[in-house]
Structure formats: C-alpha cells, structure tokens
Design brief:
Layout lengths: L1 E5 L2 H8 L8 E5 L13 E4 L16 E4 L5 H4 L5 E4 L10 E5 L3 H10 L3 E4 L8 H17 L5 H12 L5 H8 L1 H12 L9 H10 L4
Parallel strand pairs: 1-2, 1-3, 3-4, 4-5, 6-7
Antiparallel strand pairs: 5-6
Helix pairs in contact: 4-6, 4-7
Length: 210
C-alpha cells in the first residue's frame, strides 16, 4: 500500500516515531508539487496547507485532512474525505481518532501506518481534543483566580493524575489559538466550554487582537 502524507517536519517526526508496517510505503512531502504522478497512491493524508490542495483531484481514494474544530459536514467535502487530529503531540500516539464514511477501508490504512484507530462522531474536537481543551481551560480558571502559579498547577496535575503534560504545557505545545478557537466553537452549543478570562486574554495577546 502506498500512502502519501503532506506534513510539516514536526508532524513527520511524530508519525515516524512509530514506523509504518513493513508491507506499506509512506511518502512524505512538504508540498503537493512533490507528489509523484508515476506512483499509484492508495490513500492521502493532508495534514497541513490543506487550503492549497485541490481535494477534488484526489476523489476516488481515501483522503484524511487535519480538521480538529471544523467538521466534515461543515466543510462540505465529498464522501472519500475523512478527518484526523494532527495537533502537535497527537500523531505520535499509537491510537488515532478519525472520522470516516468507510470505516472498514480506513481501518486498513491506519494499520499500514502502524496505528490503531477509533472512529468517532463528526463533532468539533474529536474526543481527546475536547477533553484536553477543557483541562487547559479549567487550569486557566484556577490561574485567573490566583489559586496557584502556572508551574505549580502543571506539577500538581502531572504528579496527581500521572498526565504526561501539565495543562499549560499542553496549551503551549498545541497552541493557545487552537485551544481557544475550539472552546469558543464548543461554547456556541454548551456554555460549560466558555473560555476562561485568563485564556481569552492570552489568546488576544498572542494573536495581537487587543
């Protein structure tokens, strides 16, 4: 099986942390111009610069795009397009979340990438993205109320829950903008996702929107 992956260097590094199965060939590229027309690709992963890719030209083959906050139903993609979470830190995991209209065919593709897959509903954030964003948000509520420092909250969460990262470490790794925009979107339907004032302030400062 030939799999084409459009990815940046960090995404490529995370995927290669668990090499693909021996009977598959994975072709990484940083631009679609690197796509070799002589190769019959069985699947495509478009993990960055998706706006520069004409997905209609890839119809007939499974395509997975890095869409965390935006759902497939909102995007209006054709049935061959699915979603994965390619936020920083998520691709190195042995288990990936995905949305696909053909789960049986898609499962084989993930097996070739040496990843287990769990198929979830076509909702913003998948499952793990929503959970981590809420953990980060609650930490910002605590910080904004002067309960403790950023470092102490991170340390307490890692020691108390055995998390690999503290909430502020996660926020820095994933990106404040990604976390904030997902929470803001989720809050349109559920008030409990409303971004903490301290998180909103940092988002505005980071994106220079003050």
């Amino acid at each position: 099986m030939n799999i084409f992956i459009l990815a940046d260097e960090e995404q490529k590094k995370e995927i290669l942390a668990k090499p693909a199965a021996g009977d598959s060939s994975v072709f990484f590229a940083s631009a679609m111009t690197d796509l070799d027309p002589s190769i019959n690709y069985d699947a495509y992963f478009i993990l960055f610069r998706e706006e520069e890719v004409d997905l209609q030209k890839l119809e007939g083959k499974p395509v997975f795009v890095n869409k965390v906050s935006e759902t497939l139903s909102e995007s209006g993609y054709s049935a061959n397009v699915g979603r994965v979470n390619a936020w920083p830190g998520f691709l190195e995991r042995p288990l990936w979340e995905a949305v696909s209209s053909d789960e049986n065919k898609s499962e084989l593709i993930f097996e070739m990438l040496n990843r287990k897959v769990i198929f979830v509903k076509d909702e913003p954030g998948f499952v793990s993205g929503r959970v981590i964003s809420m953990i980060v948000n609650e930490a910002f509520f605590a910080f904004g109320e002067n309960i403790s420092t950023l470092e102490e909250i991170d340390m307490a969460m890692k020691l108390g829950t055995n998390y690999p990262n503290g909430p502020f470490e996660w926020a820095e790794k994933i990106g404040i903008e990604k976390i904030y925009l997902l929470l803001q979107k989720l809050a349109e339907k559920e008030e409990r996702y409303q971004p903490a004032p301290a998180l909103k302030k940092l988002y505005l400062e980071t994106t220079k929107r003050v």
